[in-house]
Amino acid sequence: AQQARRVLDRVVGYSISPLLWKVIAKDLSAGRVQSVALRIICEREAEISAFEPKEFWKIEADFWRDELPKFKASLEKMN
Q: Is the pTM for the entire model greater than 0.90?
């Protein structure tokens, strides 16, 4: 398994790194794990950039008094 990972690291890294040097900049590297991790980071960053905050809150309470029946109430706001 370790030998297979080493071969894959070399095949992927040796194929992609020179392409990065030509297209983007020298001294960049890519590999089997680096490429996947970078993709995950980029996807998460895109999700964060696309996030639109919306106000939301909810209050719930139980009310009772002496012998009167207990009741629940809630107040919600979504914007």
A: no
